Amino acid sequence: MAITLTKGQRVSLEKVAPGLTEVFVGLGWDVKAVDTGYDFDLDASAFMLNSNDKLISNNHFIFYNNLTSPDQSKSVQHTGDNLTGVGDGDDEVIKINLQKVPTDVQKIVITVTIHEAAQRSQNFGQVQNAFVRVVNAQTSQEVVRYDLVEDYSIETALIMAEIYRKDGEWRLNAVGSGYQGGLKALLDRYS
């Protein structure tokens, strides 16, 4: 049975799923019935950060144009861009092999942004049922889930969750912080 978190809650992945080594982070959303004249294209990304909360290199930013982390074992992999988000379940997925993430990576931040939000007059207030979930890749069992319930009526970028190391184990923080300025705002924050 998965643990459901609320904004700001933290949990040890080791305590809720002992022996967890490989996960996939599924992100999903639905678009409200609004017509901006354009389809919504939401994009999931992962920022692999050092102990100073900064990107280790540009190659440690995992997104639709850079699908795998630069380490030899490719410990973080984006499965590809979903251009419409149509359908139930996960719209985009990021796979993480927790055992193989290099030790200089202290935190993996999972984000969602709206592609060309300003040009398309779109924001997260027009999106509903957004969630992030961590699934045990070996058993396909959902371990942790965080459903966003806030109304982000002006934001075009969201930090959904952070997977981070503490005391030798991986933990998850349900962040739910919104930003204006889309992907650039997040890149500025972590660069």
Automatic annotation (TrEMBL):
<feature type="domain" description="TerD">
    <location>
        <begin position="1"/>
        <end position="190"/>
    </location>
</feature>
<dbReference type="InterPro" id="IPR003325">
    <property type="entry name" value="TerD"/>
</dbReference>
<comment type="similarity">
    <text>Belongs to the CAPAB/TerDEXZ family.</text>
</comment>
<dbReference type="Pfam" id="PF02342">
    <property type="entry name" value="TerD"/>
</dbReference>
<dbReference type="InterPro" id="IPR051324">
    <property type="entry name" value="Stress/Tellurium_Resist"/>
</dbReference>
<protein>
    <submittedName>
        <fullName>TerD family protein</fullName>
    </submittedName>
</protein>
